[in-house]
């Protein structure tokens, strides 16, 4: 199976290769800052170095609002990150109130997002956008739906795929996707934690399903992952969150990871107060852990990890790097 574009032309080798479709590299944690306080030195470059050693050959930085999207594009614009870092541009459902609070109003906010997309060739998707009814204290349903809809229009205009978010929406997310499905080429529902029925309905609409540590917490989650059609599967870390924890149903599957590879995916860690440059920060999920996600998914599905990693690579290239 050949890659879909020149940007994915890497020969198949024994070493597995990954694309992290959702990594929040603009989060201050990757600069050593936690809740507004500097806990340790900026180790952004070390995070990227570990990711590369672990086989993460491309990282897509998640844009969660106008400010984060701008920062993501500024990071990807650096010469040393060319061909390695990419970004999405959009507004997360819990941040949609920003459309109305923006100095020039909602239309100006939308225009600012549009302008960012036009300025950078590193933008590969519209999002993160969608609906989130678990955190309505940040933004009410009506506002979320209103500004989710305008981002469908942005996807249609730019012909970019959509990076989608869905939490506890009682069918509203599915209904809006179905209503606007003709407006976008491809879409991936990232950090998927829904039911088997939800997954199957979304796949029927031609969507992809993104899996990370938060998608692998319970046995029910694992049963859903097992059932995802392999041509609709993608993986991510969603760092600095969504690590695989010992309390998760997925944790036992990590026993299948060869020890030498596990050292790459889960290097020695220290608490942030005892930071050491050669170690990861305890409980801060990094893109280097993408291989752990792949191994768990392969184990749950009883598939060869090397074969599955190539299938997931091809899926991801088809959606984000085919232009």
UniProtKB/TrEMBL annotation:
A divalent metal cation 2 binds at residues 165, 190. InterPro entries: DNase_TatD-rel_CS, Metal_Hydrolase, TatD-like, TatD-type_Hydrolase. Keywords: Hydrolase, Metal-binding, Nuclease. One of its GO terms (molecular function) is 3'-5'-DNA exonuclease activity. The keyword Iron does not apply. A divalent metal cation 1 binds at residues 128, 238. CDD domains: TatD_DNAse. One of its GO terms (cellular component) is cytosol. It holds the Pfam family TatD_DNase. PROSITE patterns: TATD_3. Transmembrane segments: none annotated. One of its GO terms (biological process) is apoptotic DNA fragmentation. The keyword Hydrolase applies. Belongs to the metallo-dependent hydrolases superfamily. TatD-type hydrolase family. This is Uncharacterized protein. It comes from Absidia repens.
């Amino acid at each position: 199976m050949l890659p879909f574009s020149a940007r994915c032309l890497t020969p198949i080798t024994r070493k597995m290769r990954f694309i992290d479709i959702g990594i929040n590299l603009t989060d201050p944690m990757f600069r050593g800052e936690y809740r507004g306080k500097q806990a340790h030195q900026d180790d952004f470059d070390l995070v990227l170095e570990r990711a590369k050693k672990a086989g993460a050959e491309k990282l897509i930085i998640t844009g969660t609002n106008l400010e984060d999207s701008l920062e993501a594009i500024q990071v990807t614009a650096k010469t040393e990150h060319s061909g390695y870092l990419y970004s999405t541009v959009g507004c997360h459902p819990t941040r949609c109130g920003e459309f109305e609070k923006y100095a020039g109003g909602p239309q100006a906010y939308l225009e600012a997002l549009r302008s960012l997309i036009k300025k950078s060739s590193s933008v590969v998707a519209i999002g993160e956008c969608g609906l989130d009814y678990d955190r309505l204290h940040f933004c009410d349903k009506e506002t979320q739906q209103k500004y989710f809809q305008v981002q469908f229009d942005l996807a249609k205009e730019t012909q970019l795929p959509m990076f989608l978010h869905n939490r506890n929406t009682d069918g509203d997310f599915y209904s809006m996707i179905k209503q606007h499905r003709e407006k976008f080429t491809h879409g991936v529902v990232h950090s998927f934690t829904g039911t088997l029925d939800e997954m199957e309905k979304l796949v029927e609409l031609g969507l992809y399903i993104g899996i990370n540590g938060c998608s692998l917490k319970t046995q029910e989650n694992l049963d859903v992952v097992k059932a995802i059609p392999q041509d609709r599967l993608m993986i991510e870390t969603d760092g600095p969150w969504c690590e695989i924890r010992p309390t998760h149903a997925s944790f036992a599957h990590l026993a299948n990871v060869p020890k030498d590879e596990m050292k790459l995916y889960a290097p020695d860690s220290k608490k942030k107060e005892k930071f050491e440059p050669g170690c990861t920060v305890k409980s801060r999920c990094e893109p280097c852990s993408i291989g752990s996600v792949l191994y768990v998914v392969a184990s749950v599905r009883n598939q060869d990890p090397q074969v599955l990693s190539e299938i997931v690579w091809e899926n991801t290239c088809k959606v984000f790097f085919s232009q």
